Amino acid sequence: MAVEIINMKYAILDIETTGGKYNEEGITEVAIYQFDGNQITDQFISLVNPEKSIQAFVVKLTGITDKMVIGAPKFHEIAKRIIEITEDCILIAHNAQFDYRILKTEYSRLGYEYQRKTLCTVDLSKKLIPDMESYSLGKLVRALGIPVSDRHRANGDALATLKLFKLLLSKEADHQTISELTRSENTGILTHKQVDLLDQIPNETGLVSFLDKEDQVIYVLASDQLKKDITQLFTKQSSVAKSVNKKMRQVKVTLTGSLLMAQMKYQLTLTKFRPKYNRMPTKKSLQTSIDMNYPFQDGLMIDKGRNEGEKSVYRIKSNQLHSLGYIELNYQINNEAILDQLLNTVKENNPLKKTLLSSHLKKPLKLHSLEVK
């Protein structure tokens, strides 16, 4: 009987970019490790001259400056090498659709259609190592005891991703999950309509509601990085993501400044509109929330606002969330008549809001426990 031997080839990849407008970023550094499932078979690491300025926040994050890349090869000078080292490979990266999009964009500028299958180690980790506190690369490898150096540099992150992928491979002998999560060459690429939409959305904190052709809210998302999380929704292959992408006709964005306020508004939206594609709270989670208490019977919880000088406020009355909103002046806090005008009354007091407020007590959430006059 003939035995078929399947040799898988992977290209573990990390890319650093200049930052900037969607699909206008330039590559500043690339690291690729070709891997056969057992050992590294080839590698390519290089700074890249993006032919544009690197944004200040990226310089602070990566340490890569305009001066460092001025003498580096331009993308067209390394394009052939990247094609060769990734030939017949599945591209592996943490948030793979970002790296894949960046590569496809660079090649399209050269008039070449770059296509590779992709596998995201975020998706794979969530499937094979459920219930982790965070799936960001830094926190995930630290929690798993994987040594890592040079975070936010292409080589350091690529090596960390390689070590993570080797661990994940060891957890699944038959590679069934890997096959299920591997995306074809054309999946996860945004349409022109989606790109145009993302251009209008800031990467800030807030709430986004997706509406269908009948102006019904079908999905809602709270985030402290709206553009990033909406991009991930657009490129996911889950049934929910596909349905939202297919049915949505409008997107409503509400900036909140505070992640807590975004999460509170998320719960309010779930209660009011019951969006078709959101998961509703379970009876068990509701009961757990009912059993919790606020740190006082009457008072205020105060968080940051949408701009400098503004604060978000959550008013507690008789151990219940009474109202929420924003204030700008400190004297407004102690004036009950003004608070009644500025804050919005919470009509349906979903117990999960108590859990949200309680969880944020561990963070810099100020308490104003004096009874409001």
Structure in words:
- The protein has 373 residues and is α+β, with helices and mostly antiparallel strands.
- It has three domains: 172 residues, 2-Layer Sandwich (Nucleotidyltransferase, domain 5), CATH 3.30.420; 89 residues, GIY-YIG endonuclease (3-Layer(aba) Sandwich), CATH 3.40.1440.10; 77 residues, no CATH class.
- Helix content is 38%, strand content 21%.
- It has 15 helices and 13 strands.
- A five-stranded mixed sheet has the order 3-2-1-4-5, sandwiched between helices. A five-stranded antiparallel sheet has the order 12-11-10-9-13.
- The longest helix is centred in the middle third of the chain and has 17 residues.
Please give a handful of descriptors for the protein shown.
alpha+beta; 38% helix; GIY-YIG endonuclease; single chain; 3 domains; five-stranded antiparallel beta sheet; 13 strands; five-stranded mixed beta sheet; Nucleotidyltransferase, domain 5; 373 residues
Tally of strands: 13
Number of domains: 3
Relative helix content = 25-40%
Main β-sheet: number of strands, strand sense, barrel status?
Answer: 5 strands, mixed
Structural class call reads alpha+beta
CATH topology of the largest domain: Nucleotidyltransferase, domain 5
Percent in strands: 15-25%
**Number of H/I helices:** 15
As residue ranges, the low-confidence spans are 1-6
CATH 2nd-level architecture of the largest domain:
2-Layer Sandwich
Biggest sheet strand order reads 3-2-1-4-5
Work out the oligomeric state of the chains in this entry: single chain
Distance between the termini: 87 Å
Task: Summarize the helix and strand pattern as letters.
Answer: EEEHHHEHEHHHHHEEHHEHHEEEHEHE
Name the overall outline.
elongated
According to CATH, the homologous superfamily of the largest domain is: Ribonuclease H-like superfamily/Ribonuclease H
Average predicted confidence as pLDDT: 84
Radius of gyration: 24 Å
